[in-house]
Amino acid sequence: IPIAKQLASIKALGKGSDLEKAFATAALVYNNSADPKGKLSKAETKKLLQTQFGAFIQGQENKPKYKEIISALDDESETEIDFEDFMILLVSLTLMSDLLHEIKNVKMTK
């Protein structure tokens, strides 16, 4: 089921803000990929970030913080990621992203 259709089916978001819809979208993308226990393997998490968050991580490969985050996903000591950890990853990658700086500049130039 497409994310837009899933969002439309959540009655509480009918008049929701853009931010509420953005977080609901993140939750739906995660849930659609998670196992029945609501978790993702680290490998699945890495793949999900690459396919669904590519614009934010593009060009970050040489940054130490990015390398640290990705190497933690390659580490097999913990094999699963829950939604809370996934959101922390998203925020961490967003904060270090060049795209975030571009987004900030759009607001400043209007």
TrEMBL record:
Domain annotation S100/CaBP-9k-type calcium binding subdomain: ranges: 19-58
What InterPro entries does the annotation carry?
EF-hand-dom_pair, S-100_dom, S100_Ca-bd_sub
GO molecular function (one): transition metal ion binding
Gene name as annotated: Sntn
Q: What protein name is recorded for this chain?
A: SNTAN protein
| UniProt-listed SMART domains | S_100
Annotated organism of origin: Heliornis fulica
Protein origin, superkingdom: Eukaryota
One short Pfam family name for this protein? S_100
- Coiled-coil zones: none
